Amino acid sequence: MIELEGVPELIDPVMVAAFEGWNDAGDAASTAVAHLEREWKGEVFAALDAEDYYDFQVNRPTVWLDAGVRKITWPTTRLSVVRVGGDKPRDLVLVRGIEPSMRWRSFCNELLGFAHELGVELVVILGALLGDTPHTRPVPISGTTSDADLAQRMDLEETKYEGPTGIVGVLQEACTHAGVPAVSLWAAVPHYVSQPPNPKATLALLNRLEDLIDVRIPLGELPEDARAWQVGVDQLAAEDTEVAEYVQTLEEARDTAELPEASGEAIAREFERYLRRRDGGGPPDPGERTRPPWPPKPSEEAAGDRPSEEASDDGDSSED
User: Fold this and answer.
1) Which residue from 12, 225, 231, 257 could staple onto 90, CB 3.0 to 4.6 Å apart?
2) What's the pTM value of the predicted model, to 2 decimals?
């Protein structure tokens, strides 16, 4: 049992989670949460007992020296809290760990216990999957939920996925059954350049998260890292004729499929982000935009109004 002593009363808390492993192509999702911890100097206040959820022959502990003393770091999932300042401050509960090896239902119940104790209003789970997407185009981000009302209010897709799932899909469904509003954000990573890191996909996830929960996320060196990553992949592709031709085929397919969508809401969202960052990264004007309408508290919502389909990823063969 882990105590929550020392955690202050939170303001409009949102839980943001990511897990290394099957749901984390290019380490894009776990790196996004690590970036939030680093930029906002999050301090860990809780950690799940590694003995309960991990096979140490699969996720081995690491040994390190601290002033000549050997210490062991066990693979686990840790929680930290950061406060986002500005005219509309709010708190983020950051969950970063590794997909558990066992007892997934207990794992999700323990995380939901923390969410309940902290008064979390929304759970956002980040993931990344391999897809047929060219590295030269914007990273596709899909936002899904099992709650039809939440999908309509926050401009998300209502999930229809059926098939194998990972901890992202299981946790989202556990949230749904517990009456906790939950959203999954997925980045599509080019399958031909899947090795981590992928700062371009991480940046895309953070941009979408920023829009979803209406906070200003400091990006640090991520934009430059993303540009350098793309230049490096461009150079590698140019050295192989077959790869270059394949990338061109993906580009043509992507451009044809998305041409009707390259207007309206997507352009407005990008222009809004540009305006927010134009003057050197100051906080957005209070009147510039409003937070998305939050779903009602579980006590106000009839349980029968929540569907329970598995999370989806726009029909990709990967889970969720």
Assistant:
1) 12
2) 0.79
Residue with tokens 């839980």: 15
Rounded alpha-carbon distances, angstroms, from residue 204 to 88, 127, 139, 201: 23, 12, 6, 5
Give just the sign of the alpha carbon dihedral 221, 227, 229, 231: negative
For 103, residues 6+ apart whose C-beta sits below 8 A from its C-beta are 52, 53
Q: Which residue has the tokens 């299981």?
A: 170
CA atoms within 13 A on the CB side of 144: 29
C-beta separation of 10 from 307 below 8 A: no
The yes-or-no verdict on residue 300 having pLDDT over 50 is no
Q: pLDDT tens for residues 48-77? A: 999 999 999 999 999 999 999 999 999 999
Start-end of H helices in 136-240 = 148-153, 167-178, 199-213, 222-238
> Taking each helix axis from N to C terminus, what angle separates 241-258 and 222-238, rounded to the nearest 10 degrees?
130
Task: Give the CA radius of gyration of the chain.
Answer: 20
